[in-house]
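Bug #77: duplicate submission created two jobs. Keeping one. Sequence:
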Amino acid sequence: MRTLNNHSHSSTGSGPQQVGTDMQTVHVPVLLQEVLDNLNLREGDIVLDGTLGGGGHSKVMGSVIGKSGTLIGLDADSVAIKRADARLSELECTKYLVQQNFRNLDTVLDTLGIKSVDASLFDLGLSSDQLEVSGRGFTFREDEPLEMTLSDSIGEDTLTAKEIVNEWGEESLADIIYGYGGERYSRRIASAIVSAREESEISTTAQLVEIINSAVPASYRHGRTNPATKTFQALRITVNDELGAAKEALEKVLGYTASGGRIAVITFHSLEDRLVKRLFKSWRQEGKGQIITKKPIVPTEEEIIENKRARSSKLRVFQKV
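Kept job's structure:
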């Protein structure tokens, strides 16, 4: 583990380490005040940010817990770790920024010798940086390689969106596009993908967007939402096992949460929100704590005007007994 200064440690894996000279992030943290109001942070707390991203939430949480506090930030992307490290450089708290998927938070905490945390945050949306500058195919607005991996370290065994669209059967494609994307034209899109790949390999986002556009009715192509939105979401969720990872991470973090500690989760689509709602409900029924947010907290009109990405976000918070 490389020591950056007396209070900051940054650990990254073996993936690409290049970062642009501009370390400023474009990411705007959603529901920031609402997260602070509901996590009940105090000076000296140990806080886990399971989805570090641009470091926006961590910067404010780190300033609240102060010099005697400890902040652990996790992200699968080494570039995100470097970006956040620059953003959080002025924090006085002890910092551990680690390149790791949040589903492995137990390994990280055990390695650091941290027995319990007072608060944790999981922002399940992609940061603006991942969407706009990762170059891994998250956005359909750019022509990028069809990868969609949250980690920038891609090995031989890494599942990618390219592998799914070129190798999975038509029925499996239709199932994930409908199941994870809620796409009503899932069968037509799956059929078009299979036909297209018989002509040539589908390797870029632009190719996939063109195939999706050709498969859906003209009225759908010119609707309010880009017709590729739901298919891209479904592929990203599948590639990264996002629902499985979220469930595993939340179940693990409950075991590390101190008595009275709180877990906050921000979701961006109904599948994630349903998972969190059911998990919190089951914990309450098992006597593990109480749900702080009877209904999910949603952004104000002002926040949505300032940050359109916030519009579908929901915050749920649980307190361990």
